[in-house]
Amino acid sequence: MDAEGLSADELFCFLKAKRNEDRSYSHILSSMCTTPHPVAVQAHNLFMETNLGDPGLFPGTAQLEDRLIRWFADLYQEPSAGGCTTSGGTESNIQVLRFCKKTKQVKNPNIIVPASAHFSFEKACGMMDVEMRVAPIDDQYRMIPDATGELIDKNTCCIVSVAGTTEYGMTDPIPALGKLAEQEGVHLHVDAAFGGYVLPFIDHAPPFDFSVPGVGSISVDPHKMGMSTIPSGILMVRDERVFCNLLVETPYLTTKQAYSLTGTRPGASVAAAYAVMAYLGRTGMKALVTGCMENTRRLIEGMEAFGVPRKVTPDVNVATFDHVSVPSPWTVSYTRKGDLRIVCMPHVTRDVVESFLTDFGESYVSHSN
Predict the structure, then answer these.
(1) What number does CATH give the domain 38-277?
(2) How far is CA 245 from the centre of its chain?
(3) Which of 193, 270, 293, 307 has the CB geometry, 3.0–4.6 Å to 89, for a possible disulfide?
(4) Nearest-CA neighbor of 223 among 192, 193, 247?
(5) pLDDT tens column, 285-311
(6) Same fold for the domain at 8-36+281-368 and the one at 38-277?
(7) What's the chain look like in SS3?
(8) 0.85 exceeded by pTM
(9) Cβ-based neighbours of 128, under 8 Å, separated by 6 or more
(10) Does 37 score more than 90 pLDDT?
(11) pLDDT score at 79
């Protein structure tokens, strides 16, 4: 740090130069985040200095959080469900393991996750000294209930399922897993960080929410398909009393107890998430999701026309193919098995898909010859 500060012009000239080194969403096909909706940006700026870690100081912002939770309780078909906002799926998943471990109160707790689970569960288990058992997935990349059942014992405190897997866009057989969880008396958590904003707006989507008996909690991320600002997450629970296991005393704040993982919690991203949902409504969200799913289908059709087969037909807007390279400047990713992976987020419009297919086709044909 220099003794004398920079002028505003010098500072922002430098910052803009650094920002220009970042990749543009216009050619990013691998991210589950997207360009925030304009109303999200406006709301975020309006609530920039609010802190939900001390909600008594910001009662209006706290009311927005409550409204957001009530919306998701309705969306996930359990009006009495509770919840809280988080920084995203990782924090939500950590919180689930925290209250599951405290509720079970066994010496050597374990959880069962599918082989498709997000890496945040490995983090959470390492932090809390919880054994992570990995259940196999079938040829459609879905968790196998019978194999999951064989991993359960008296120390199992949670079964984790996924609605819209990060790599292949698949949804586990949650009704069967819910039945298993009820039979065994084990909490079932649904990691719907991505699919939680997609599946409710798709006709005949795989069931995943509180309408499924046995589902105890659901995590979802507004900063993904919710087009909110980063970071933003929501953890919904069927029975809000589970949070009592996480309460700590906060004597110098306006509220005297808290169960959140973080102390300071930004109200800006909560306001942004609320703004998008309020602005679009169910009709707007359904139109957004429908467009993303149509673009996913078009991408799959286009790639298969070039002789690059899909790996699976996804439940959400994630497309995977046999391993092939793509031309610059397109940014894609590859699964652990090496399969090409593309996420058709809102910024991946039909024009972007067609542009990518044109560039890919020219490159692929030339390399094939």
Answers:
(1) 3.40.640.10
(2) 24
(3) 193
(4) 193
(5) 999 999 999 999 999 999 999 999 999
(6) no
(7) CCCCCCCHHHHHHHHHHHHHCCCCHHHECCCCCCCCCHHHHHHHHHCCCCECCCHHHCHHHHHHHHHHHHHHHHHCCCCCCEEEEECCHHHHHHHHHHHHHHHHCCCCCEEEEECCCCCHHHHHHHHHCCEEEEECECCCCCECHHHHHHHCCCCEEEEEEEECCCCCCCECCHHHHHHHHHHHCCEEEEECCCHHHCHHHCCCCCCCCCCCCCEEEEEECCCCCCCCCCCCEEEEECCHHHHHHHCEECCCCCCCEECCCCCCCECHHHHHHHHHHHHHHHHHHHHHHHHHHHHHHHHHHHHHHCCCCECCCCCCCEEEECCCCCCCCCECEECCCCCEEEECCCCCCHHHHHHHHHHHHHHHHHHHC
(8) yes
(9) 94, 97, 98, 101
(10) yes
(11) 96
Q: What are phi and psi of 308, to 5 degrees?
A: -105, 100
Question: In this structure, which CATH number among 2.30.30.140, 3.90.1150.10, 3.80.10.10, 3.40.50.300 belongs to the domain 8-36+281-368?
Answer: 3.90.1150.10
The ranges assigned to domains in the chain are 8-36+281-368, 38-277
Token digits of residue 240: 């809000």
- Residue identified by tokens 């959140």 is 260
Q: Which pair of structure tokens corresponds to residue 115? A: 């082989």
Amino acid type, 187: H
Chain position carrying tokens 């406006």: 42
* Separation between Cα atoms, residue 222 and residue 157, nearest integer Å: 27
